[in-house]
Amino acid sequence: MEQMTYTISIYAENNVGLLSRVSAIFLKRHININSLNISLSEIENVSRFVIVVHITEEQVQKIVKQIEKQIEVIKAFYHTDEETIFQESALYKVSSKSLFEQRHIQNVIKKSHANIVTVNPDFFVIEKTGFREETEQLYNDLAPFGLLQFVRSGRISVTKSAMEISHILKELSD
Amino acid sequence: MKSIKTKSIQELKSPGQPIIGAEAVVRCLVAEGANLIYGYPGGAIMPVYDELYKFQDYIHHVLVRHEQGAVHAAQGFARVSGNVGVCMATSGPGATNLVTGIADAMIDSTPLVCITGQVPSHLLGSDAFQETDIIGISTPVTKWSYQVTRAEEIPEILAKAFYIARSGRPGPVLIDITKDAQFASFDYSYKPCRSVRSYKPVPETDLNDLKKAAELINSAKKPLIVWGQGVILGKAEEEFKAFVEQSGIPAAWTILGASALATEHPLNVGMVGMHGNYAPNLLTNECDLLIAIGMRFDDRVTGDLNTYAKQAKIIHFEIDPAEVNKNVTVDVAVMGDVKNTLAAITPMVESQAYKDWLHRFDELDKIEFDKVIDTELNPTKPGLTMGEVIKAINASSGGDAAIVTDVGQHQMIACRYAEFTTSKSNITSGGLGTMGFALPAALGAKMGAPEREVVAVIGDGGFQMNIQELGTIFQTQAAVKIVILNNDFLGMVRQWQQLFFDKRYASTEMVNPDFVQIAKGYFIEAKRVDNREDMNAAVEEMMRSDKPYLLEVCVEKENNVFPMIPSGASVSDIRLE
Ligand SMILES: Cc1ncc(C[n+]2csc(CCOP(=O)(O)OP(=O)(O)O)c2C)c(N)n1
Q1: How many angstroms separate the CA of residue B340 from the nearest CA in chain A?
Q2: Which numeric CATH code is attached to B382-554?
Q3: Comparing C-alpha atoms, which of A31, A35, A30, A29 is closest to residue A7?
Q4: How confident is the model at residue A14 (pLDDT cuts 50, 70, 90)?
Q5: Which helix (H) or strand (E) holds B135?
Q6: From B23, B51, B67, B368, active-site residue
Q7: What's the half-sphere exposure (Cβ side, CA atoms, 13 Å) at B321?
Q8: Which of B4, B141, B193, B487 has the smallest number of Cβ neighbours within 10 A?
Q9: Neighbour tally for B182: CB within 10 Å
Q10: Atom number, ligand 1, closest to the C-alpha of residue B485
C-alpha cells in the first residue's frame, strides 16, 4: 500500500500524561511523527492535537483506533491533505544590516507576502504562514542573506467536513 | 490455610472529620470490596501501610517477597475470581519491580489496580531518593494511569481506577500517589464511578451486523468457532455454550479461552495455535466460515497471516474496536459485549448437524492421537513425560482444579492435556509469556478461590524466577499444589535449538538445586519422584493434602512438544514430529 501524508486530529481531555500515551503509540510501531501541534479546541477544556504522519492508510486506520482507545481521548480522525485546510507558520530572523545594505531582500519579502513582525537595529523578524512549499521557498530565498534563526510550527488544520465533537460529548455524558 | 474473614463496608463508620490521604486510600479499597491485596512496603508508601495496620479487620494485606510476586498474585486473584486484583508498592525500585506484571496484565486484559507511593510532590523531578517516573515507565503497558499529588483527588481517582480496570476490555491501571498527598487531611467522601465522559467501554451493537452474521452462519457448510478469553472476561460462558449448542458448530479455543467450555463438551474441538491441536489448526484453512469470539488473532494463533483462513468468510465478535481488522480483515464485525451479542444471535441461528464436517475433526484427531497424544499420555518407555503427570492430576481432580502454568514446554503440555469442567481454570501468561508468573499467580488464585483446588505446573527454569514466593506461600499457608516438571533444561528454548539451531544448546542446560530441600527450608511439604509408579501415588498424595505441597517430577530431559507450527509458518504446515 502506498504511503501518504495524513493529518490525524484528536480531541481529548486536558491531561498531563496524554501526550506521552499518544506518542507511545507511534513509538511502539516505529513510526516517525512529522509534526505535532497541541492547542485549545472549540470546546472548553478539550484540547486538540494535530499530528502529521507519512504512512499507509492501513497504518493510519489502526493508529487512529489505538489513539481512540486511550481513556482521555474523545475522538480521533484522520484526513488526507485534500480533505483539510492546513497551514504552517514560520519565523525567520535576519540581521538588520542586510535589510539596509541589500535592497534585493526587500523584494523577496514583498513577493512572498510575508509579514515583518519586528525590526530593531540588530535584527528583524519575518513571519510567513502558508503551505510547506511557501515557507520553504522563503527559506531558500532568505538563506543567501544569512538566517540568524529559523523555526517552523507544526501543521494546524481544520477539516472541510464537520467534526461534531460537541454532539459526541453530549452523547457520552448522557 | 486459615480462612480470611474481613468486615465489610457496612461495618465501617464514615470518618465524621477530616482524614489523611493514606486513610482515604484504604477506605476507598474497602468501598470497592478490595479486601485482599498484595504488596511490599517502603518509604514512599508507609503512610498507607500505617492505615492498613489500623484497618486490618477490613483489608487483608499479603506481604509477598518481591513486588513482581505481588502483581502476579493480584493477576492470579483476578483471573480466578473475575474481580479486580490490587497490588501495592513503594516508589522507585518497588514500582519498577511491578512493571513486568503490569505488562503481562495489559496484554492478557487482566483487571488490576496498582498503587505506588511516590516522593513528595515538591521533590518531583529532583532525582530524589527512590524517585522514578513510574507513570512514564508504565504508560505503554497500562490501560490508564494517574499521578495523585493532592489528597482531595484520591476518592475520585481510585473510583475511576477501579471502573476503568474492570469495564469494557479490562486492563491494569496504575495510580501513583505522592507522599505529601498521603499525609494531607481533607473531607472524605466516596462515590463509585459509573462513567468517564471520554471513555466508551462497550461499543454499540449494530443489528444489521448481527443479521449479516446470522446469515453467514446459517448458510455455512463448514463453520468453525474460535473463542478466546473474551468469553470469560464477559462472563458469557452460558451464552456461549447456548450458542455453540444451538448452532452445532465445532468450537476451538485460544490458550486464554481454555476452560470457558468444558473439555468434555462434544463440540469442543481443542486448542488452536502454535502447539494447539491438529484438527482445528488444519481445518482453519478448510472451513468456509470462521467465527472468532472474544479473541484477537495473536500471531501464535494465526501463524503466517498471508495463508490464514484465506478461503473463509470471517465474523468477529469483539468489544475492542482496535482489534477489528488489526491482524485479520473480517467480513462482519459484531461489536459489543459477547454476553449480549451471543445472547442476541443464538435465536437467529438455525440448528444444524454438520456431520461430514465434524467427521473431518475426528479423522484428524485420530492422527494426532496416534502420532502424538498416545505416546505423551500413555508412554511405554521408562522416562516420565510431562503429559502423564497432567493426566494424573486430571484423574485426581476430576477436572475441577484451576491449573496455573508458567511458560515453556510444561505450559503447552498442561494447556493441551489439562481437563476442565469449570471456567476461569486455566491461568497462564499467554500474551507476554512471562516466566516466573505461575508461583505467585497460583498463590493469588488459591486466595481468590480458597474452595478450589489450585495446581501450579512450573518448569525448573521458571520456578527459579520467583522462587522466593515460597516464603509467602509458607506465611499464608495457602494450600497451593506446586508441581515442578524438571527436565534440567530451559526446555522450550532447547526444543527450538534442537529444531532450528542444529542442537546447539547455548545456555539452556540447568544445574539445579535440590528443590525438595528448598521447599523444606520454607517448611513446605515436598517430594521428588522419578518413576511412573511413585509419580502417580505422589500426585494422589499431593492432591489429598490440605496444605501447600511441592512435588518435583523428574521428567525426560529432551522431549519435545508437538504438534508445532514453526514460528511464521502457516497453520497448514503444522508438524506432528
Ligand atoms: C522472563 C522470561 N525470560 C525468558 C523467556 C524465554 N523462554 C521461554 S520458554 C523458556 C524456557 C522455560 O524453561 P522451564 O521453565 O524450565 O520450562 P520448560 O520449557 O522446560 O517446561 C524461556 C527461557 C521467557 N518466556 N520469559
Answers
A1: 20
A2: 3.40.50.970
A3: A35
A4: confident
A5: helix B134-138
A6: B67
A7: 19
A8: B4
A9: 26
A10: 21
